[in-house]
Predict the structure of Heme sensor protein HssS.
Amino acid sequence: MKKSIYFKLVVMFVLTIILGTILSFVLIYNLYFDKIYKQANNLLVDAASDISMLYTKSSSDDFEKVMSTNLFSNYYVEIYNGDKQIKSYGDNKSFYMSDEAKEKVEKQEIYINNTKLNRVLTPKTPIVGYPFKVKNKNHAVFMYLNVSDDYVDGTVLLEINILVMILTGVITFTIVGKMIVKRVKFLTMASRQISRGNYDIKVEDKGKDELSELSETFNLMAKRIGKTEKMRKEFVSNVSHEIQSPITSIMGFANILQSDCTDSDKKTYAKIIEEESKRLSRLSENLLKLASLDNDQDRLNKSKYYLDEQIRRVVLMLEPKWDDKNIKFDLILPKTEIYADIGLLEQVWINIIDNSIKFSENDSKIYIQIKKYDCVIDISIKDEGIGISEEDLSKIFDRFHQSDESRRVEGSGLGLSIARKIIILHEGNIRAKSQRGLGTEFTISFRN
């Protein structure tokens, strides 16, 4: 599951607050409360000493009057005679008297509670046991002080808490920020490599957030740019080769025409020049067509029409070519309505059928059939020509690709590339199967 950077930052913010609160508690407890407890214990010892003196030197009534005043409203006082409780005063909160406290005061030693924690995350409680004697009998004053009421300064605690959370937040977000910036810097470095022509660069990012998605998109972009650059170089090389050949012929035969030659030779050479010029013109038209398709300049102008009638018209259009080779057509074309660009699809049928005619033997057959299914229309065009080797079959839709056999036949190697591009624009697909010497079959599929 992809986790966005925004989600991670929110989680980090919440964790920072929790961590900051815990750290501030630990800090406050160890630095602030320890100081308070020491002061409270000293205060309790002095107060217990005063109470023991008051108890021994004043009458019972006077003692009760003093102990009932607001002076001890935040205290809880218990006076023991041995193990028996005699009187309790002040804050009406009883507390458990440990055996250790009792043993200490019995030995006439002052007891101070030094326990760090009474339970998990609970502050220690200031308790003092002060022994004294009355008529040679052991007595003791045990005092409890409610620290939270008198001694805890909320402003100080808040300031410490805020300071710790700010420091925790700064440290946490500095670490997270460095991690994010490091990934962005790597993308920047990779972009510079792309600008210098290194398209093999790959950004490794194993995360599951927007930056990871950006890295994947970057890698895909670099791969496609590299592939396009390779195609561009091959394109320039192939165009140079294809254009150079007819230009050489035109220049050569034009030079011969300028010298002494018979009228018959002149006609032959002029015809060659005308054919080579037409070849150059067709090559130029095909290059312009590919360029416009690549740049989406040919926007689809779709309309409903009958596909079977269009294919019949193309076959008739190419009659001079197949009639010269005495090729027969076997057409199985049921009435089929299609929603497509008439002009562009006509170019597809011209390119593929013309290709089948060129590579068919004399007195052979070409089979064209339309098959309609619920959601798909299949058009198959099969010839009995020279066929294509398995090695070349995977490259026949590449621009300027010509197998060894096809180089003996006039062509630029762009016809099938143009056809495939138009079919893809119609969200269709084209497949080819062939065997050497047994002909080739093209199957074109469109969604119905």
